[in-house]
Fold each of these.
Amino acid sequence: MAETAVEVPATVTEKEAPLPPAAAEPELEPQPVVTVEVVEPEKTKLVEPTKKLAPESLVSFKEESNRLSDLSDFQRDALDELRALVRDALNKREFTHAAKAEEQPKEPPPAAAQEGPAGTTETTPADPAVPQPETETLVTELEIVKELASVYETKSEEKPAVESAAAAEGSSLADEVSIWGVPLLKDDRSDVILLKFLRARDFKARDAFAMLKNTICWRREFKIDDLLGEELGDDLDKVVFMHGLDKDGHPVCYNVYGEFQNKDLYQKTFGDEERRTRFLRWRIQFLERTIRKLDFTPGGISTVFQVSDLKNSPGPGKRELRLATKQALQILQDNYPEFVAKQVFINVPWWYLAFYTMISPFLTQRTKSKFVFAGPARTAETLFKYIPPEQVPIQYGGLSVDLCDCNPDFGMDDPATEITVKPLTKQTVEIQVLEKCVIVWELRVVDWEVSYSAEFVPNAEGAYIMVIQKPKKMSPTNEPVVSNSFKVTELGKIVLVIDNPTSKRKKFVYRFKVKPLSD
């Protein structure tokens, strides 16, 4: 069991200097409280060669409020109308006995993206100077990305399931229907559910009601309540998993498509129709269990932050995966509205630039603002914009280890500091310890290619500097995280040094804590 950490006054100083190192700066005066001071030199503008980057979201998306006081008059009127339609349907037991509402046929895709007889998609020719992937790859991935995008889009108008007027306000309900564990019209959590359907249908109350009725009908047919208790195995735990929270408190869901490069796992998951159906039930079960943990009170967290890792994503030959993915996405579009706060694609291949250009005309500005794309070199940097480093899994540049691994000193609740180390600079972190203790720390530089050293400098004049870690060149093949500890028996400071001799910016993440000396 780890020792209980205690608060010890300390001063942290972060310094950046060009290589070779500049003259040492004077030590800070000891302070009676913990403080953090960042010392930066004058900024030098670096000119980098022009290169194509995966497109990122250029519009900041602010998640809509579910508090009634924050809604516009139009939105409140739509919510009142939907409440009345739901109340009327509950009184008439229409949710229990009715079949699915009839939907308007979908409009054909615009001419700019019409599919030809051979299943190819006509698009503007790409720049011949840029190497092109196989056409089938583009078509396959474009279909999936367009399907995913449609989850965020307002669907074309649906035919209302009923045409009756609302029952009188306050009348007793003859039926009770729950969705995601929330009884409709029983408390203010119901309004949060109804607002999801309204936003998915552009606040058209009757269209939202038709969608809600169809969702309840589908849940009954799919036997969602029974599905929650089924034992479907843990073979796919590394394919889709929840890990940590983003900076706004949303739970983070990771989708790792590269795991399906494992032929045995792929065959076991998609080998025949029965296995594909089992995969679909597992995916819906995972989603349902995740949703049940959300907070549907107004002001609560009722959405999920999605991360899709495209590294080693299977190619066009994986027809079974493509079909299963499209089927799952169609279910999400029809029955799980407004559950994604942000969708971040990481380790994006270069040809996704072309995809984004092709699908962009089909997306609303609101949907575009939810999408973020990051190439392999910017995966950690992009995740850190939205997720604290201590919450990011270690394989994506963070400090968070799997729950099954043992890390007695640090957990996801221990905050980390993130620093960008500029090219050809030295980054120094000084931890001034003002009481005798044991200090432990861990750090990493994403993809390394730097030198790391650590030493203890006593405050006493003429005392010897103690080398904790000699300068060591760290390569990408080294352990991703370095951990150290030091027993402080005389006052002084721990000095951590990162030398970045490369022409690339580096993400440096560290954290520390102090423990009392053992008797």
Note: Confidence is low (pLDDT under 50) at residues 1-8, 22-59, 103-142, 156-171.
Amino acid sequence: MEQTQFKNVSFNVPVVLSRISSYQKEVRDIISANYVDFVPFNTSSVIDDLKLLEMEIKELVASTDLLTVDKSNVASNDLRNYQQDLEECVRGYKIARKLLSIHDLFESLNLTYNGYEKTAHILGKIKSLLDELEDPVLAELHCLHSFIVRYETEYEKLISNLNGKFNELVQLQHRSFQNTKSVTIRINRDENLLYQVVVTLLNTHHNFHTVCQFLLENVFAPVIVKPVSLICDEKSNEQSVLIQLSYQLTVGEELRPGYKTVLSNVMKIFYNLSNINIVVSEDECLFKVLAKQMKKPMCTMLIERCLERDIPGTIEDMKESSMVKDVCEFNAFLHTTNFVDGENDHLLEEYANSIETIHQQKLCDNVLDTAIEIMKRESHEMVLIQDHEYQFVGSSKTELSSCMVTRTVVELKKFLDKVLAEAFAHGDAASRFIKTIATILERYMVDVPMANEKLLFKIPQQSALFRNDCTYLNYWLQKNDDKLNDHGSFANISDALKACGEDIFQQQLNSQRAQMMQALEGFKLSINLLELGTEQQRAIRQCIRQLELLKNVWQTVLPDPVYKQSLSGLIDQFLREVMKRIQSLEDITTAIGNGLVLLIDIMTETLPNLFKEPNEIHQLAKQWMKLLQLRQILCGSLVQITEQWAEGKGPLTMCFGADEIKHLVRALFQNTKQRQTCIASIV
């Protein structure tokens, strides 16, 4: 039996090899004719013979494999040679068969009844064959390059035809005029042809980038940010669906459409665009392809340029708003129409869930903006705050005193009352409101001094008002301490407010002291001076005038304790400097002494009037008694001075030391026994 099989193999192998060689020659002629000489060549008979030859090869290979498995010892060398020859020829046969298959597929492209889908399917098979190069010899064949070039040509031709046909079926047009723009989308109702074109484009992995760009730039962008005239008509024309919109190129911010109008228009557009949403399978449709490029930028634009600006800025408006529900319903609509990309499908829903938080932040931002606007108002109008309304903290105890504050700070305080009431009326937003109040007060300490820097440092009344304003706000914090006590930052803000007002007012006091010292430069006393002139009197009167001006602008503005403390401090410095210069004289002539007494009389007549109760100057100005005693010394005799000193027990000892009295005696009186006796008694 095995011997018979071997004879059959030995007979059939040469025959099959000969037929394979003949087949290879025919394929070579076909390829050469079509891809070298470009002469049409009929391949139908070759294909029929190919099928028969392939069956014979399979039977022959099976026979040789069987002999090999049985390990026949008969003519083993001949069998091995037959097998090698057969393997080589089979390899050549497979190459020839593949080339003929590719060629046959190219030929089938020319059939008139081929549709777009079938053409794409054939090109897909050709691409698979060209990519599957099992035998390295294939890559070295010159004809393979010709196949690749032809495939690329046919593929580009198909894509070009598909794009052209798609543009016929879906017409996207826009025209710009001087101030307006018109956009038209016309969709052909030939569903079968549209289906073939779109499905084929999808199967060729077409990205529809041009369509996406057109829709984003010319349709959705203007619909989201501008008022548009939109016409969506799918009934009046049996052959096409029409989407048409026109809009102004430049539109003011105040004319932007509300979010409800925007969502409604976008839904209308998607509803009519659904005529091109060809569904290939459950997982693939045209809208899903468009969504991969459009979903994120469109939703981002909708959020940033429409929804965000329409989030209510007041609690009342937020209660009446249906924005959260509307955005969720719109997101569900996009999902229903299959406008999904798998990555950004929850973008709008997540934003809708954050609208309440954004509203609270926007509300707080509006509160802060309103407060800053109040702060920046130029208010020179003053408001009287009565004792029961305004608490001032003195050095040792709490006192109540009337004063003046600006209309601006009164309005700010009323606004803070309103904000605090809103905070506790809406517990979920309370924390944000409280933090905003803290921010308002912190901004007050920065913005107001910066905006009114020149006024605060140059005009005494303004610095006094600012001090009162800061204390007024500090009092408001103390008054509402029970509501704010859970927020530790207010303790620091309270201290900072008080310090801010005091610092500004203290700088004004320092400025007044500097002006006074500058004026006293005219009060020059020297040993060579024979009598006082107008210069010294002018310096004293200038300082008194300065204090009187401060009285006019401070007495009704500052709380009484603060006014008394501030003005008495300036008076003390004034008196101290004048007396220091008088006491520094080595020789005081009668003329100079009389002049100094006249100047002291001017001061004693005018300075008490700086206070509502003139006699209060004795308690408020520490240097006042010393001034009066200095006048007594300038007018008195040696006997009177001795009696006033009274061996260190008289009234002069309250303000003067022994050395000071001795120096004045030497300056006022000549060196006599009486002066020596007087000086000797002063110890």
Note: The first helix runs from residue 2 to 35.
Amino acid sequence: MPTIGVKRDLLFQALDKKYTDDEFQTLCFAFGLELDEVTTEKQMLTREQGDDAAGAADASEEVIYRIDIPANRYDLLCMEGLVTGLLVFQGKIKPPKFKMVEPVGGKRQVMKILPETAQIRPYAVAAVLRNITLNQAAYDSFIDLQDKLHQNICRKRTLVAIGTHDLDTVQGPFTYEARTPENINFTPLNQTKSMNGHELMEFYSTHAQLKQYLPIIRDSPVYPVIYDANGVVLSLPPVINGDHSKISLKTKNIFIECTATDLTKAKVVLDTIVCMFSSHCKEKFSVEPCDVIQPDGTTVTYPELAVREEIISAQKANAAIGISESSEKIADMLTRMYLEAECQNAGDAITVKIPPTRHDVIHACDVYEDVAIAYGYNNIRKSLPSFMHIAKQYPLNKLTEQLREQVAQAGFTEALTFTLCSRDDVARKLNKTIESMPAVHIANPKTLEFQVVRTTLLPGLLKTLVANRKMPLPLKLFEISDVVVADDDTEVGARNERRLCAVNCNKTAGFEVVHGLLDRVMQLLEVPWKSASSAGNGYYLQAAEDLSYFPGRCAHIMLNNVAIGKIGVLHPTVLQAFELTTPCSAVEFNIEPFV
């Protein structure tokens, strides 16, 4: 779910009303959103980079609302769309009507797609916003919306890449081509040196934000590029725009182009951008169309700005949600949700107009959902289903709950730790190498604390011990939860494994304490003790060597001659790595074989 940050004072100014934090949270909830956090730019920088970074950046103390937006509501990813949606929801304005306006002189901007682009990114769409006025807040919102769309519907620019240009600095008609890297030369955005394709790839290979987009085209024999009539490069999608056509606060006419591997997504992105920011044009909610000449010679006009009609049944809407409202009331609720609706001749049918901003509405069920949001989920009466259900608890979860109660009764305190941890936690601190661990790695970790999915419950419990080391001894902790293990034999390359882990921390290691817990659990599971050499089913301990445990003080837990876990006294270097000063013994084993 995307999160947007909007400045509180600017938001209240646009809404023409001031709210308390609680009042605005209530408004967001009624509209189907969630006010995630009330913060400031300085607080966010301090949390992410520390006090020094926040001070050096001269961060603002202005209050920022961070709002969670549903992933399918692309129209709410900027302040312009959010404000319009809330004002329509409150009934203060009617849903705006977007229109196409032909340019003065009647000559549209033209973009021609050359056949070579089929090798790399075959589609392109374009539009123009005329006589637009951007202040700093609107400019920042314009850039932020593009970034949010790139991360969301554009799938990190693999499906769609957006380029925005100052139309007054370039000359149409434009051509969308695919050329070899050596034949592309231009000055990238905010740079002073001209580069070819290869030099540009090398230059941005260490860039914090742009390096992730280079692999999309790097290995292709040709790179996509957009030129104007004078041979000026507008952009090299999906990596970077040219510096020549960059927009600024002085820009009055914006040329927007979207190149794509998915034409439908490109249309959605273009419609969203022009609808949101046409509110800043001199003629509000007006967009100038562009002609895109396809490789086969046909001409298509963009943006489409299509308004679709959907006919729904009020009776079906009531039945789906569990309410009983009249057709007129449902039509009014839909209009508040940015979907203009009217009843058909006092009948059951309701005609709903789907605007170009609401590409998330695909089926009648999507319309029913908006009715439920406008009605208020908390206002829907709870009722029992009209038919019988026969269900049972998932066996593994049932066993987990039973064991939690019994282990707690054995004198251990339950902990609930993070599923993600650092590479050091599961490897170096346990005297192992990360290469030897079957760990699932996070591709782009935001912090050093969350780099891999845990392969063992032990580090989480040891960190919990550290956080509670001022408590009186003994400290006896346990956790029953999932770990994730890389496994090439599974469909997704990894599998979950439910484990029980317990740690005893005291002046002496107390191996007998965790051994006693193991025996108690096996007694509850009705698994008998057996010797290693005897026949039949049961469990026993088999000496083992593990770098995480003290030499000669570690054993495999064998169930029916198969190792399901380990028990032992932790190695002093492991304790030192986790900043513990008292001896610990631990037991950890897989409980899935007992289901």
Note: The CA atoms of residues 99 and 286 lie 5 Å apart.
Amino acid sequence: MGMRLDEEFGADRVLQIETDDEDNEADDYKIEEDDEDSGSDFTLHSPVHETSHSQIGPHDSPTWPQSYRQSMDMFTGVTPPTLSFLRGSSILRSQTTPTPQPSICKPLISSPRSDKEEVPTLTHPTRLSVVSSARFSALELPPSQQCSYTQSVLNAINALCGIGILSTPYALKEGGWCSLFLLLLFGIITFYTGTLLKKCLDSSPGIETYPDIGQAAFGMLGRIFIAVALYAELYSSCIEYLIMMSDNLGAIFPSARMVFAGIHLDSYQMCAIISTLVILPTVWLRNLSLLSYISAGGVIALIVVVLCLLWVGAINEVGFHPGGTALNIAKLPVTIGLYSFCYGSHSVFPNIYSSMKEPSRFPSVLLISFSIAFFSYLGVAVCGFLMFGEHTSPQFTLNLPAKLVTSKVAAWTVVLTPLTKYAITITPVAFGIEEFLPSPQLRTYGVSILIRTILVFSTLVISLTVPYFGSVMSLIGSSLVMLVSLILPCACYIKLSKDRITRFQLAACTFIIMVGLVSAVIGTYSAVTSMAK
């Protein structure tokens, strides 16, 4: 059965697909077929020279995760929206990226093909990704494409300015006015570690993703460890989306109650179940281009919510009231987790960098996006705390007077945001799980639906068990964000650049690692004990 091309290419693009028994070698890539297996396994070979950790032979087992690059590209996609529901398919897709895909990222596929096919492609190196129903009955991902400088800045801002902004007034209340220094400190540190990720990506032409960096630095264990940490961060973010959606729906309908089979459900529990049922069909979508396109409007949603907050404080009856303490040491661990959560976007930065038309301008993309994020967080934190004082909730939208129209606009904006972000956030996790399915017979439409459904309902169970938005966010920030955004970038950079790292860089990375470890320990302990109480 032949493989079907799903995209059209220009006449000036040439890519040669060759079989094992041919003597000629392709200049950039060679796709080899292993006839010993029941299906044909392809591997991409890059002419670049890699470190000993990242070298994998042509017949080695495919490395996990294989789907990370394409699934995370949804966070940076600006593709035209198309929509269809999940079903098995066989796709051969050519995606334009600045760098070729290395052997450490070779696709996990099993699909028959003809002996020789010529496929149009770009004359400069491209990355070939193949997704087959033999391996995945998965979602069809929007194709990667090169982004302009402006698009890259917007993608970075959209990744940084997320739901963490809702808790910045609460973090200020808990830690005191001096805690704002931590907001600046974490912003500077995470900006620096973002530039370290770029240097790690540049250390070898074949490195494209965060797991690639882990493998280049620490071998397969490093790749797997980083992938698990990234997937855990994405999964926990979905829990936060559900808690946030349920809290605000419960505030809109505070008197909602239900008794089902003798079980009494309050407004939060009922809204959590309804939210889950509304979100569920979005994770069944086969092509997530539409959701990726809409979720890019997260910046607009953020602006709407912030404007509603300022409107209520400046024009409506709330006003601004100075107060608060200078520093609250006892509550500072909670503040550390909440502030660090605000800058937890490093899982997306390698994809933004790899998709740029001008990757040399990536540091300025980070500088602009981090500056906008910091001043946004600072302004909302100060205004929100001056408005609500010691009564500030973990989500400032819950403090807005319910009778005001602006309050309803802010609440519904927060409720609708997860509908576009939940599916593209949980999809990489689902892809990673599907790669573990042992046989092609299990990679079916029904199994894919089942995996995604189980993931969604598991986030519902956790959100009902620990319905504490602030504590869960502090836990994520203290544990996962500290690991992914502070500790691992420095550790990988030290490992990959050990022969050319300067004393200043080594000292800076060591300091950041120590800050990350100490903050992770005290912040995680504080968040866990808070939820236990």
Note: Residues 1-62, 78-140 have pLDDT under 50 and may be disordered.
